[in-house]
Amino acid sequence: MRHIISVLLENEPGALSRVVGLFSARGYNIESLTVAPTEDPSLSRMTIVSIGSEDVVEQITKHLNRLVDVVKLIDLSDGPHIERELMLIKVRAVGKEREEMKRMTDIFRGRVIDVTDKSYTIELTGDAAKLDAFIEAVDKSAILETVRTGTSGVGRGERILKA
Amino acid sequence: MNANNSAELLNPAKQNDVSGPEMIGAEILVHALHAEGVEFVWGYPGGSVLYIYDEIFKQNKFEHILVRHEQAAVHAADGYARATGNVGVALVTSGPGVTNAVTGIATAYMDSIPMVIITGNVPTHAIGEDAFQECDTVGITRPIVKHNFLVKDVKDLALTLKKAFHIAKTGRPGPVVVDIPKDVSFQKAPFHYPSDLMMRSYNPVSKGHSGQIRKAVSLLLEAERPYIYTGGGVILSDAAAELKAFAELLGYPVTNTLMGLGGFPGTHPNFVGMLGMHGTYEANMSMQHCDVLIAIGARFDDRVIGNPKHFASNPRKIIHIDIDPSVISKRVKVDVPIVGNLKEVLVEMTALIQSSPARKNQAKVDAWWSQINEWRKKDCLKYDRDSEIVKPQYVVEKIWELTKGDAFICSDVGQHQMWAAQFYKFDKPRRWINSGGLGTMGVGLPYAMGIKKKFPDSEVVTITGEGSIQMCIQELSTCLQYDTPVKVVSLNNRYLGMVRQWQELTYDKRYSHSYMDSLPDFVKLAEAFGHVGMRIEKKSDVEPALREAFKLKDRTVFMDFQTDPGENVWPMVQAGKGITEMLLGSEDL
User: Fold this and answer.
1) Which of residues 111-150 of A touch B (CB under 8 A)?
2) What is the pLDDT of residues B446-469, one digit of tens each?
3) Is B182 marked active-site?
4) Which of A51, B97, B114, B577 can pair with B173 through a Cys bridge, CB separation 3.0 to 4.6 Å?
5) Could you tell me whether strands B115-121 and B147-150 are parallel, antiparallel, or unpaired per DSSP bridges?
6) Three-class secondary structure of residue B398 per DSSP
7) Cβ distance B277 to B572 under 8 Å?
8) What is the pTM of this model?
């Protein structure tokens, strides 16, 4: 089962490595991880996507909570939530491909943000599955570079994670 | 932005805070240790901590003990912490000082011992430049500490030290490393040490959930085959008296883990012995066949429940009390989890039981006791008492007799550790000092010297083997310099006994590198260190030798007992087996 764990932690040197170290030391899996400071610069917000059984995810959240730098966390996948990921994907765009790539970008509601006579760089936002779908949809050999931020998420409505 | 800012917002200056004039970092450290009431610091100087040592030279509120190897500094402070419940403090220099301390830190971490380890580091401007005696201290120690800090600004030093002590001793205790670069130790800042501390990211619970406690009590009162299983948590939370009251009120059987020994009196009629890999037959059988199990400050680890699938094959209701939620349902699914301080939870449960209507399960519990007494008849700790060769079990029994069960017994790791655990009956907590989680050979002597420093009038005995003792034997020198006369009981079987035992049982008697040839003459070695050495070769000499050694109150005595090289620890549950799949002796092979 895929879980999205949102963590508020002290914005201190070493805090990130404590989280990452915990996952490697205990053999937990990280699909993606994003982190940046919040409106309160002393706090960082981290989103971790992990795949594991309920038991494993329970242990992951307990061990994260045990870290002294962790202020609070929730498992977003426990309730309604929104998730987004940003992808910058550079594709070959020559001849007929230019039109095709542009059309595909429009279908996925992406934007071409850099153009050369041989390539497009496309910006695409959505949940991870949508970005996967785009990669599936375009000709593999046309992909020059893929850069993904990893998933960020937030609870719907009144579900709020705040210190 | 430094998060200490947020801590400052949460912690305005208070009346009982200790304040002082501007001073250098090293002096701030020494003042902070004074404010924490530190009595002893075990350490080893080096380039990065010389300002700190200079300040230590100028003070006399705590005593510094110069060990012979940094590993022993951490072990000694750890032993002091285990015996007192206070935070143990060690001080080491950068680089190799830190890496030598790592084994000690990991040992304390695995057994949740409150410690603060101060490490020097190269100056902040040199960090990351592969400077002389530089290592990434916070990186190396991160997985083996409760928390660690690198102090980059002298203005943060006092508050960081306060946090370190606070974190080390609250909640589930553990070691905290504070890494102080050399320039921080000589830069100046005003001294302000808060009397208490709030941290938004760290608020360990203490009170258990009352609904869960009620549920647990009703399960306990209806149990037919109840069992109380307690671990090191009872010792750490000083809950032994509360546990005794709770268990006596119920009249239920009690077992202890290796770390939990002394948490319940070893001579109490309700005590069925230690459980686990080398636990008693009755303790393991009860664990498997009980219908309501209450685990108190224990963690169902592999040495205790053996194969978790086998353990789960008998259905039972499990109540689990621990201060650390991550321990609960880690290896075994639990029915009633209670997160809280054991002492508080036990008091609450005991009161609830007292006010409950009379139990109706007494007949069933009596039948359960009869079953347990049947199991006891196996006499699983029997050994050959007539042997003229010195039996290690006999030595431990004699130590128990002669010290009236009241000594601090510091064990190393191996067969002798198990014999000490099985044959010395601990009636009090904090008397059994050993490395249960990490299983660190070499802890015994430093543990003893750490404890003897605090309890000069108590008998402090290291039970060790010729393998373990050689891992920190250099500390015999520290024992002389700092006047910590301990008694070293080496059960010398010329083998790495536990390895040999596994090789005998599982590797078809291929004794690969478990025999030690060319052992030193330990008597001469002890004498070379300025101590008394004895070699004991016959059973009839065991008691007189021990009596003589205990008479030499102000001398460290090294007793080299030439024990039976073929002796094994029984019972034994081999790795991967269920806890009732026990070998009770060589006849079961």
Assistant:
1) none
2) 999 999 999 999 999 999 999 999
3) yes
4) B114
5) unpaired
6) helix
7) yes
8) 0.96
The partner residues of B227 in beta bridges, in order of sequence, read B293
H or E segment and range at residue B189: strand B188-193
Whether the pLDDT of residue B1 is over 70: the answer is: no
Checking A126-135 for CB contacts under 8 A at 24+ apart, the result is A126/A84, A126/A85, A127/A83, A127/A84, A127/A85, A127/A151, A128/A32, A128/A49, A128/A83, A128/A85, A131/A85, A131/A87, A133/A108, A134/A87, A134/A89, A134/A104, A134/A108, A134/A110, A135/A89
Q: Helix, strand or coil for residue B340?
A: coil
The catalytic position among B155, B182, B343, B398 is B182
Sorted by sequence, the CB contacts under 8 Å of residue B449 that are 6+ apart come out as B65, B72, B76, B79, B475, B478, B479, B482, B484, B486
Searching chain B, which residue's CA lies closest to the CA of residue A22? B143
A93, A98, A101, A105 alpha-carbon torsion, rounded to 10°: 110
For A62, name the nearest residue in chain B, comparing CA atoms only: B326
Q: Does A80 touch chain B (CB under 8 A)?
A: no
Residue B3 pLDDT? 43
A63: nearest CA partner in chain B? B326
Q: pLDDT tens digits for B459-500?
A: 999 999 999 999 999 999 999 999 999 999 999 999 999 999
> What is the per-residue pLDDT for B5?
46
Selected for mutation to probe chain B from A10, A16, A70, A73 (highest B CB count within 10 Å) is: A10
- Does the annotation mark B408 as catalytic? no
Q: What is the pLDDT of residue B20?
A: 80
Residue A163: pLDDT above 90?
A: no
Alpha-carbon distance B66 to nearest alpha carbon in chain A (angstroms) = 32
- Using the beta-carbon criterion (under 8 Å), do A68 and B199 form an inter-chain contact? yes
Kindly tell me if the per-residue pLDDT of B8 is higher than 60. Answer: no
Residues belonging to chain B with any Cβ–Cβ distance to chain A shorter than 8 Å: 1-3, 5-6, 138-139, 142-143, 146-148, 150, 167, 199-202, 324-326, 328-330
Are B143 and A21 within 8 A, CB to CB? yes
How do residues B278-309 score in pLDDT, each as one tens digit? 999 999 999 999 999 999 999 999 999 999 99
Residues of B in contact with A59 (CB under 8 A): 326, 329-330
C-alpha distance from residue B546 to each of B45, B403, B461, B550 (Å): 37, 10, 11, 6
3-state secondary structure chain A: CEEEEEEEEECCCCHHHHHHHHHHHCCCCCCEEEEEECCCCCEEEEEEEEECCHHHHHHHHHHHHHCCCEEEEEEHHHCCEEEEEEEEEEEECCCHHHHHHHHHHHHCCCEEEEECCCEEEEEEEECHHHHHHHHHHCCHHHEEEEEECCCEEEECCCCCCCC
- Residue B115 annotated to the active site: no
B36 is catalytic: no
pLDDT confidence tier of residue B7, bands split at 50, 70 and 90 = low
Task: Judge whether B481 counts as a catalytic residue.
Answer: no
- Interchain proximity A66–B324, CB inside 8 Å: yes
Nearest to B201 among A10, A13, A55 (CB): A10
Quick check: bond before B571 cis, omega within 30? yes
pLDDT, tens digit, 9 for 90 and up, residues B397-452: 999 999 999 999 999 999 999 999 999 999 999 999 999 999 999 999 999 999 99
Please provide residue B491's backbone torsions phi and psi, each rounded to the nearest 5 degrees: -90, 90
Instruction: Confirm or reject contact between A36 and chain B (CB < 8 A).
Output: no
Chain A partners within 8 Å of B203 (Cβ): none
